[in-house]
């Protein structure tokens, strides 16, 4: 594809990114779900591509995000219960729970997208660590909303590009 023919695709994706950023700023200014969750949406957008650029993969990514958030809550709770270990409470928690999480790789379809689990868990840890006053419920809800926004952007990108290339390329 020539650079000239690719230009509308690049502009469409740029407009999507701008709209997503504007929506994130509006959400944060009006009612805070989680402070500045646009970064989560951009991760989920990329995860849509990693998941295969289709609806089924998007659903698997969404389920992976949810499982990652649930795993994060379990890690926080177990780590809190092992607080007497001091410095070692979280490392020991991870030695116990990460192998269990990795068994999702062997789970039935829709539940076996481990990369989305780790990205979802990482985003949850980010919210809980850096958003003042974050609680499990608000972090879960905020991450879920932004994850869905990102997956929708991924779907829109693939749908537009498929339509455009089918109509105007070759």
- Uncertain runs are none
Provide the domain count: 1
> For the CA atoms, what is the radius of gyration?
18 Å
Task: Tell me the distance between the termini.
Answer: 8 Å
- Percent range of helical residues: over 70%
Portion of residues in beta strands equals under 5%
Secondary-structure class: mainly alpha
What can be said about the biggest beta sheet?
none
Oligomer: single chain
Determine the number of helices (DSSP H or I, runs of at least 4 residues).
6
Specify the overall morphology: globular
How would you describe this protein?
This protein is an all-alpha fold and 170 residues long. The protein has one domain (41-161). Helix content is 78%, strand content 0%. It has six helices and no strands. α5 packs across α6. The N and C termini lie close together (8 Å). The mean pLDDT is 91.
What descriptors fit this protein?
single chain; 170 residues; mainly alpha; 6 helices; 78% helix; 0% strand; globular
Element layout with pairings:
Elements: H1 3-30, H2 38-50, H3 55-81, H4 89-102, H5 114-130, H6 136-168
In short:
By secondary structure, the chain is an all-alpha fold. The protein contains 6 helices and no strands.
